[in-house]
Amino acid sequence: MNTPLLAARGITLALRERPGTLILNDVSLVVPRGKIIGVVGGSGSGKTTLACMLLGFVPEAMRLKSGQVLWEGKNIQAMDAHTLRHWRGGRVSLSFQEPASAFDPVFTVGDQITEMLMAHGGNGRARAQEKMLEFLALAGVDDPRRVAAGYVHELSGGLRQRAMIALAVCTRPAVLVADEPTSSLDVILQARIMALFRTLRRELDLSIVLITHDLGMVQRLADATVILVRGRVVAGDHPEAQALLSAGGM
Amino acid sequence: MPMETPRGETGLAWQRFMKDRAAVVALWILGIFYAVAILADVAAPYTLKDESREHPYCPPTAVHFFAPDGRFAGAHVRGVQMTYDHFRRRIYNETADIYPLRFFGRGETYRFLGAFPADRHIITVDAPGRIYLLGADSRGRDVFSRIIHGARVSLTIGLFGVLISFSIGLLVGGIAGYFGGRTDHVLMRLCEMVMMVPGFYLLLALRAAVPDSLDSLQVYAAIIIILSFIGWAGLARVIRGMCLSLKERDYVLAARTMGLSDLQIIVRHILPHTLSYSLAAVTLAVPGYILGESALSLIGLGIQDPYASWGNMLAEAMSIVRIQFAPWILWPAFFIGITVLCFNAAGDALRDAWDPLLKGRGEGA
Predict the structure, then answer these.
(1) Whether the predicted pLDDT of A44 surpasses 90
(2) Is A135 helix (H, G, I), strand (E, B) or coil?
(3) Average pLDDT over residues A149-174
(4) Domain ranges in chain B?
(5) ipTM value of the model?
(6) Cα dihedral B69, B70, B71, B73 in deg (nearest 10)
(7) H or E segment at A65?
(8) Burial zone of A39 (CB within 10 Å; 0-12 exposed, 13-18 middle, 19+ buried)
(9) Cα separation, B230 vs B195, whole angstroms
(10) Cβ contacts (< 8 Å) between B268 and chain A: which residues?
(11) Which uninterrupted H or E stretch holds B118?
(12) Confidence class of residue A157 from pLDDT cuts 50, 70 and 90?
């Protein structure tokens, strides 16, 4: 059997101060190459925490009780700091729920994408800037130069989200973890982002972990779906999963 | 119709700064001081090496427009003759000799900005006439000229000093705050060790560690380094506190998920956000360096004769008797005072401008 690209095995996270409170409880997830995996859950189900965990970040207030994240079958905890740093951003990247706060407000959006390109793959500044514009265009930005020169607070919600995705995929990672990529957008933009994900998968051979509360989006895009309820993975016939499904009008 | 463009944080802060009249005046005064310091060779009537042993403690020269016989003679100064009264005190009497003031006239030669040979001075008089706008010191050197030359040392030592100590402070504070834990613990105890020694004794001890047989440029560099060594700890502590909260921001986590190195994150995504605070703190720290240099020079451990700094000029004013007979040797103190006031006014306004909520609350930003 093929080893999956990225896998989480039995992740259990507890609050540091209250070890009895589990934020994630025995969560496992497999991301095969070139597939889109949906992770669906309501607010507070541990989706964003799982997103961080997939990149090996344990949030400050929490402690990893058990479980591991595997990259091509190898535990990422065993990676040395240098390898881990290049793995993050280079092989796996995360697009944030709130691009408004995930971009540094004192640098332009273009600067930050360029910075990322220079940090990975040793591009020179001129080459990195060229690539930055290419990726903004690929992410569906109509006027890459204007967007690149703007600060994040100057961009509309849709542009921010696309710039965030451009930032996340510009190093051609193998896996993109997208945390609520469409939650703040209207339906037209949502449709464009979904189309964008299909394009990216095709063009960059990207696997995507699509974390959202939007079941409709997952059903249209994902090859497999994981439902999170209060930190646990549940089956589709779980009563709360049913509640989530019916509330989503499915 | 022209639209008003929205202003960024910096623009707004600048707008608020410009509304503070005291700060604007302070900025102008400092601007003039620095301009004069840069053009010291032209602005000063005499060079650093100039002295006139016949004119010790000559009082400020009066500028006359009419000759002794009453006819108009243009702006000029008179010759002076030194005698002693029956208490053996020096008395200067004006003679009838007339020395017209020359503007941009030829005087002693110097190298303009250290490069081109030149001999023009804004104000000068022909030898053997002397012009002492602010009086003369014990060796008949012009206090006004020496204040202008001394400004180069006294005004730049603060700038270079804060540049070095703030680079150290920012980096140490940034590293301590970002990494936390043991690193933080060790670095903060180090800061406290530096802060715990009374500043002036540390200054003296460090100066004692530097050999005496240095030329003036080396002494200048040594003073800057010594002063910066004392100054960085306070800032490091504040920056560390700011970093502790800044590192929780999403864009810092984002930068980490992007695989940027810790140093890159600290320098690019954390320290720039402390800039508004540190800019004000830098301005408020400059006076400390100016005063530190003055203190060292005053006790003879700083800039040495014949080079001038405002501090070593004041060394002459340590005797109360001299001040009584030649109060003009205190002029450098006046300029130190003005400079310190201006930096404080500008620094306060800068801090208020960046953080209007703090206005009027004094220290402790």
Answers:
(1) no
(2) helix
(3) 88
(4) 52-140, 146-358
(5) 0.84
(6) 90
(7) strand A62-71
(8) buried
(9) 8
(10) 104, 107, 115
(11) strand B116-124
(12) confident
Distance (Å, whole) CA A92 – CA A106: 25
Inspect the interface and report whether the beta carbons of B254 and A119 lie closer than 8 Å: no
Largest Cα–Cα distance of chain A, in whole Å?
55
Q: What is the mean pLDDT of residues A81-90?
A: 87
Bridge partners (DSSP) of residue B22 are none
Of B8, B257, B260, the CB nearest to A119: B260
Residue A141's identity, in one-letter code, is V
Q: How far apart are CA B362 and CA B347, in angstroms?
A: 11
Nearest of A117, A120, A155, A122 to residue A133 by alpha carbon = A117
Query: Mutation test of the interface with chain B: which of A82, A91, A104, A117, choosing the one with the most B Cβ atoms within 10 A?
Result: A104
What 3-state DSSP class applies to B167? helix
pLDDT-wise least confident of A108-122, A189-203, B34-48, B205-219: B205-219
Characterize B169-183 residue by residue with b for buried, 16 or more Cβ atoms within 10 angstroms of its Cβ, and e for exposed.
bbbbbbbbbbeeeee
Taken in order B195, B196, B199, B203, the sign of the CA dihedral is: negative
The second-level CATH assignment, the architecture, of B146-358 is Orthogonal Bundle (1.10)
- CA-based nearest distance A209→chain B, Å: 15
Asked if A89 and A173 count as a contact pair (C-beta separation under 8 A), the reply is yes
Q: Cα(A68)–Cα(A186) distance, rounded to whole angstroms?
A: 36
Rounded Cα gap, residues B243 and B121, in angstroms: 51
Q: Centre a 10 Å sphere on the Cβ of residue B91 and count the other Cβ atoms it contains.
A: 11
CB of B43 within 8 A of CB of B34?
A: no
Element (H, E) at A131: helix A125-138
Which of B276, B333, B265 lies closest to A89, judged by CA? B265
Q: Which residues pair with B110 in a beta bridge?
A: B118
**B252-281 confidence digits (pLDDT tens):** 988 888 888 888 898 888 888 888 788 888
CA distance B282 to B289: 11
What kind and span of H or E run contains A191?
A: helix A187-204
Asked if B241 contacts B273 with a C-beta cutoff of 8 angstroms, the reply is no
In the predicted model, residues of chain B with pLDDT beneath 50 are 1-6, 361-365
Instruction: Inspect the interface and report whether the beta carbons of A90 and B254 lie closer than 8 Å.
Output: no
Between chain A and chain B, the number of residue pairs with CB atoms below 8 A apart is 60
What distance in Å separates residue A155's CA from the closest CA in chain B? 14
